[in-house]
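re: that chain from earlier
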Amino acid sequence: MKSVLMFAVVCIVALNACGQRVNTQSPIAEVKGATASGTTIYIRYNQPSVRGRTIGKDLEPLPGKVWRTGADSATAFEISKDVKVEGKALKAGRYALFTIANGDDWTIIFNKDVHKWGAFSYKESEDVLRVNVKAGKATTIAEKFTITVSKAGKIDLLWGGSDVSFKVD
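^ sequence. v structure.
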């Protein structure tokens, strides 16, 4: 009887595992760039898509709430040298990138815990740096959340009709 029960459990687990699919709705994206000063910036994130939803209502970022700045795992932001972000010092290293959207005012957050799933276990006490920036209008609508890095050290967060930028010197 034990062996029949064990066989049934093994079959159920195997069928469940075979039926699972890889999540491609928010694929992993990576962007790497070098600034004119020689700092390498590497960002790894998951790219959500709008797919007919409304950003700020059915889709993050929600007003006033911490957002992982992408989907799934927290976005990883890595710099090879000590830099200034919007004029404030940030040491070389790897950080989780979070944001808070409040209309046109956004807070960019660098947090020391890069091993987070979403923002569920986010702790403000682990923030290394926060800077405030203004959101602008994107030149084209970004169906997929996209991050770009320019040689001038400008980071753009493109999502829907918004372009949120911050400068890394």
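Residues 100 and 148 are 19 Å apart (CA to CA).
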